[in-house]
Specification:
InterPro entries: Alkaline_phosphatase_core_sf (IPR017850), ARSB (IPR047115), Sulfatase_CS (IPR024607), Sulfatase_N (IPR000917). There is one protein chain. The chain has 557 residues and is an alpha/beta fold. Helix content is 24%, strand content 15%. The strands form four sheets. It has a ten-stranded mixed β-sheet, with helices on both faces. The longest helix has 26 residues, at 262-287. 50% of the residues are buried.
Length: 557
């Protein structure tokens, strides 16, 4: 009876009004520098293209924001979200590279070849060069484009670097993680290197051992201070926090000494520092004349990792999984340009939607030959209209086939359920294969000094199960599997998966390259693939062969 009721419920939209004024709060995560131009921008200057500030947090759990009931204080995020539009049906990908690639291209992973795992430091792999990026499209219409923070879209060739993919400047890290103070990263024993860049070179001269959240904030402030606010700017700020390793300046632990779990305590301090940093970015936008014509978008790149202090409660699963806890993210839009300020959007929004939405807002053009998977959702967010999106392909990973009991028979001859995949169509969500760690991790799980799974909730299913169906609108916590009750719905979604799969490009997941070792590159992680040298060698060999042939012809004559 409960399952029938869950299956029949429909989506409800919730709007709450009440616009609040932003109040300044001073903090230490990067104090605003003086305007490097030495002048304040003229108020009310004519502008049409908005300044776009996209802030991407790393591994922030769904519960880990004040307005979702967290014990961690996030006054800046709470206030910005309350004055803007909270996205409460917002989806990303379960890991770093996939979310970032879909943000910057507007395409699903199956259409870029990055549908398996992440890009590893030693892999000769990057976001395919034939994909047009968001900053490239914004540059076409006059935007100044700057990136600060974590790239994680590959760097084995110079052409893969952020400055070659549309950004005028880049300051940050190339890898997926690293020490917050020293900026060193070991991929495996003996394979270690430095990972902080200023444009295309190691930023040795700019490294003063500052905690990365604060260092990135200071760089953002410098960019805003030196740029002319009458000209549009796209600022992509991809913070390292709150990804492991769990490190934070001591003073941010002050309010969290009562948290016994050391990982959760460190995580809380890191998030507190991040919240303060975003406050300082917002103050800089006001100080230098950007705010009134700005759009601030905040998003996490994936769900939290409970073993590293993150909480997705009451959602199921964690980072790296296709349960809601891995892909349903904290997200909001804050802007004076919003029409429905102080509202909650429960319409379906996906990270691929930012590409067409922002290009349209910037008065840019989307080429007809670019086959996007994202939709323009500005009217959905700003005015409360229905979303043009009715489905999301969470992913199809043909390499990840760990569901030993998966089969074509279990997929009604439509789909091989050994393949890890997930799709959302309207209210329905289907998962096949092995979706990943499936526990619910309540707040009590963080009550002890060490990791504790005693409080975790689990559901035991029959051996060999490889198909799940949920009505996510009615059951966002994925507690009632409806696959046996609604086989026709399962078949419909399997057919939709099959249709998507016909459009997939081959997976790009090459083996590691020993030439990637930082020891061979001055102790720095960076491009190692020397295509030019290979061309020179081949050209020399071709030239030598031509000379030999001409000599032989002369001898013959």
């Amino acid at each position: 009876m409960v399952a029938a009721v869950l299956a029949g419920l429909s989506l409800l939209s919730l709007l709450t009004c009440g616009y609040l004024a932003w109040g300044s709060r001073r903090g230490g995560a990067g104090e605003a520098p003086r305007n490097l131009l030495g002048e304040e921008p003229a108020a009310g200057a004519p502008r049409s293209q908005p300044h776009i500030i996209f802030i991407l947090a790393d591994d922030q759990g769904f519960r880990d924001v004040g307005y979702h009931g967290s014990e961690i204080r996030t006054p800046t995020l709470d206030k910005l979200a309350a004055e803007g539009v909270k996205l409460e049906n917002y989806y990303v990908q379960p890991m770093c590279t996939p979310s970032r690639s879909q943000l910057i291209t507007g395409k699903y992973q199956i259409h870029t070849g990055l549908q398996h795992s992440i890009i590893r430091p030693t892999q000769p792999n990057c976001l395919p060069l034939d994909n047009v990026t968001l900053p490239q499209k914004l540059k076409e219409v006059g935007y100044s484009t700057h990136m600060v923070g974590k790239w994680h879209l590959g760097f084995y060739r110079k052409e893969c670097m952020p400055t070659q993919r549309g950004f005028d400047s880049f300051f940050g890290s190339l890898l997926g993680s690293g020490d917050y103070y020293t900026h060193f990263k070991c991929d495996s024993p003996g394979i270690c290197g430095y990972d902080l860049y200023e444009n295309d070179n190691a930023a040795w001269d700019h490294d003063n051992g500052i905690y990365s959240t604060q260092m990135y904030t200071q760089k953002v402030q410098q960019i805003l201070a030196s740029h002319n606010p009458r000209k549009p700017i796209f600022l992509y700020v991809a913070y390292q926090a709150v990804h492991s390793p769990l490190q934070a300046p001591g003073r941010y632990f002050e309010h969290y000494r009562s948290i016994n779990n050391i990982n959760r305590r460190r995580y809380a301090a890191m998030l507190a520092c991040l919240d303060e940093a975003i406050n300082n970015v917002t103050l800089a936008l006001r100080k230098y004349g950007y705010y009134e014509n700005s759009i601030i978008i905040y998003s996490s790149d994936n769900g939290g990792q409970p073993m590293a202090g993150g909480s997705n409660w009451p959602l199921r699963g964690s980072k790296g999984t296709y349960w809601e806890g891995g892909i349903r993210a904290v997200g909001f839009v804050h802007s004076p340009l919003l029409k429905n300020k102080g509202s909650v959007c429960k319409e379906l929004v996906h990270i691929t939607d930012w590409f067409p939405t922002l290009i349209t807002l910037a008065e840019g053009q989307i080429d007809e030959d670019i086959q996007l998977d994202g939709y323009d959702v500005w009217e959905t967010i700003s005015e409360g209209r229905r979303s043009p999106r009715v489905d999301i392909l969470h992913n199809i990973d043909p390499i990840y086939t760990k569901a030993k009991n998966g089969s074509w028979a279990a997929g009604y001859g439509i789909w091989n359920t050994a393949i890890q995949s997930a799709i959302r169509v309207n209210h329905w969500k289907l998962l096949t294969g092995n979706p990943g760690y499936s526990d619910w991790v309540p707040p009590q799980a963080f009550s002890n000094a060490g990791p504790n799974r005693w409080h975790n909730e689990r559901v035991s299913w029959s051996a060999g199960k490889t198909v799940w169906l949920f009505n996510i609108t009615a059951d966002p916590y994925e507690r009632v599997d409806l696959s046996a009750r609604h086989p026709e719905v399962v078949k419909q979604l399997l057919r939709r998966l099959s249709q998507f799969n016909k459009t997939a490009v081959p997976v790009r997941y090459p083996p590691k390259d020993p030439r990637s070792n930082p020891k061979l590159n001055g102790g720095v992680w960076g491009p190692w693939f020397k295509e030019d040298e290979k061309k020179k060698k081949s050209d020399k060999s071709k030239g030598a062969n031509k000379q030999k042939k001409s000599k032989n012809k002369k001898k013959a004559s």
